[in-house]
Amino acid sequence: MSFIKASSILVPSNAPAENPAIFLNSVTPLYEACGYPQPSLPAPGVWTLLDLTPSGVPSNAVAVDLRGILIITDGSGTIVSDLAVAFQKPGGPLTPANYVEQTIGIGSSGGARTNADCICPCLNGCIEWSWYRGSYGEWPTGPIAPYPTGAAYGLNISVQAVYLP
């Protein structure tokens, strides 16, 4: 592992949760990137480019501090549901299986809520992110059984700090 020197840290001047970098709800389905609705949910297990500059992240940022919550609402036919998220700089060396955030819901009609945070390298104001989700027979990339039989998945991730060179 190597490190880059950051000489300044920027923190939001307003509530960052009001402008999440990633907001995803598998039931609706709804995916917003920096407050802008996207045409569809990103495919699971695939890197998705996320431009953070609309949220005020400078293009010369070397890293961002991402924080939020991972959400599972188990369906009536769900035994164990799993949600995992990975982050890297664009073109970085990792696979989506190198996830850094995870939550697991156990039991039908239950669920899980887990705080999530990581510091992710940034390139030109962008990061890449990926998710895995599913229950038995769906994990990690199979079709999601419709809620309320299958589980529902959600992400609400905000930029909490920006690291500058």
Structural account:
- A hairpin with a 4-residue loop joins strand 2 (22-25) and strand 3.
- This protein has a single domain, classed as Jelly Rolls.
- It is elongated and about 50 Å long.
- The chain has 165 residues and is mainly β.
- The mean pLDDT is 92.
- It has strands at 8-10, 22-25, 30-33, 36-37, 48-51, 63-73, 80-88, 101-106, 111-121, 126-135, 152-164.
CATH topology: Jelly Rolls
Integer count of domains: 1
Low-confidence stretches: none
Q: What portion of residues is helical?
A: under 10%
Q: Could you say what the CATH architecture is?
A: Sandwich
* Distinct helical segment count: 0
Largest sheet: 7 strands, antiparallel
Report the C-alpha radius of gyration, rounded: 16 Å
First-to-last CA distance:
18 Å
SSE pattern: EEEEEEEEEEE
Q: What's the topology here?
A:
Blueprint lengths: L7 E3 L11 E4 L4 E4 L2 E2 L10 E4 L11 E11 L6 E9 L12 E6 L4 E11 L4 E10 L16 E13 L1
Antiparallel strand pairs: 1-11, 2-3, 2-11, 3-4, 5-10, 6-9, 6-11, 7-8, 7-10
Offer a quick outline of the entry.
The chain is mostly beta strands. The chain contains no helices and eleven strands.
Key words describing this protein structure:
mainly beta, 7-stranded antiparallel sheet, 4-stranded antiparallel sheet, 0% helix, elongated, 165 residues, Jelly Rolls, single chain
